[in-house]
């Protein structure tokens, strides 16, 4: 059985979990506390980051971007990049946007400070980082809402890895109660469609010690 080394509230890990599920590829999850720098894990992924995918035959694929590219190339039966060339470029652009700009400006400042910093024993959240994260989140949610109002899915006419990547980041923030969905109706309606997909159900069942998600987190109708 293929195995995914992960953290439950890691957006890159959640992106890969969604991609695997959308492609209907069975897998097991293995919790990996990356900050512990286990030698056995570093042998698999010298960067020491999560996620890392290990195929049934022992083939190792590190990093969420590399993993998704590998899955797309080797399991193309259910594609996660759009068939239209222009939309395929847009899907890739948005994946880079959410894993890069959104992660730096929002996810790292909120989930990184409130969850990852705590469980790694690195002290209390930085107030300035939290303020920046909340301010940036508003602009990003407005942009997601604009995309959702003007397209069927974020990159165009087809659900793609862009939707899964955005939803992975937002699901982490939603778990820690950082999104006021009532202020972002278009983004909320798009997110409701994503989290209603079968691939999303295991994420909605995630629980972590010390954090209780808001009641709407697992509610498909908010």
Give the helix tally: 8
Provide the spatial order of strands within the biggest beta sheet. Answer: 2-1-3-4
Write the H/E string, N to C: EHEHEEHHHHHH
Bin the strand percentage.
5-15%
Which architecture of the largest domain per CATH? Up-down Bundle
Radius of gyration: 17 Å
Distance between the termini: 34 Å
What would the keywords be for this entry?
single chain; 222 residues; alpha+beta; Glutaredoxin; Glutathione S-transferase Yfyf (Class Pi), Chain A, domain 2; 2 domains; 8 helices
Describe the structure.
The protein has 222 residues and is α+β, with helices and mostly antiparallel strands. 53% of the residues lie in helices and 6% in strands. It has 8 helices and 4 strands, in the order βαβαββαααααα. The termini are far apart. The model has no long low-confidence stretch (mean pLDDT 96).
Give the structure's gist in a few sentences.
The chain is an alpha+beta fold and 222 residues long. The chain contains 8 helices and 4 strands; from the N terminus they run βαβαββαααααα. Helix 1 crosses helix 6 and helix 5 crosses helix 7 (185-195).
Please give the structural blueprint.
Elements: E1 3-6, H1 11-22, E2 28-31, H2 39-44, E3 52-54, E4 60-62, H3 64-74, H4 85-119, H5 127-150, H6 161-175, H7 185-195, H8 201-204
Parallel strand pairs: 1-2
Antiparallel strand pairs: 1-3, 3-4
Helix pairs in contact: 1-3, 1-6, 4-5, 4-6, 5-7
